[in-house]
Amino acid sequence: MLQNIGVPGLILILIIALVIFGPSKLPEIGRAFGNTLKEFKKATNDLVNGDNDSTKPQEETAKLLAVETTKQSNTGS
After folding, report:
1. Measured in whole angstroms, how far is the alpha carbon of residue 3 from the centre of its chain?
2. Nearest CA among 30, 2, 4 for reference residue 17
């Protein structure tokens, strides 16, 4: 569907959006749309790559525990 729009169709859509929303709101709408696409792409990549945030806090906790153990052994000796 979007493959047949072409440059004249995009210009027409931009003019209609400019008339409806006005020149002051158009950059805000574009920015919000861009942020939405960025978040969607990030979430999709996380799902595809199998990244799991639930393991990261466990790894950080283990690292902090190791650092604390090292500090305690150094101060105790």
Report:
1. 26
2. 30
22-53 pLDDT tens trace: 888 888 988 999 999 999 999 999 888 876 55
Closest CA to 16 of 3, 7, 2, 26: 26
Nearest to 51 by CA among 61, 39, 42: 42
The dihedral sign for the CA sequence 46, 47, 49, 55: positive
Nearest Cα neighbor of 30 from 14, 43, 41 is: 14
Structure tokens at 55: 């393991």
pTM for this predicted structure = 0.46
Pick the closest to residue 26 from 18, 16, 34 (CA basis). 18
CA gyration radius, the chain: 25
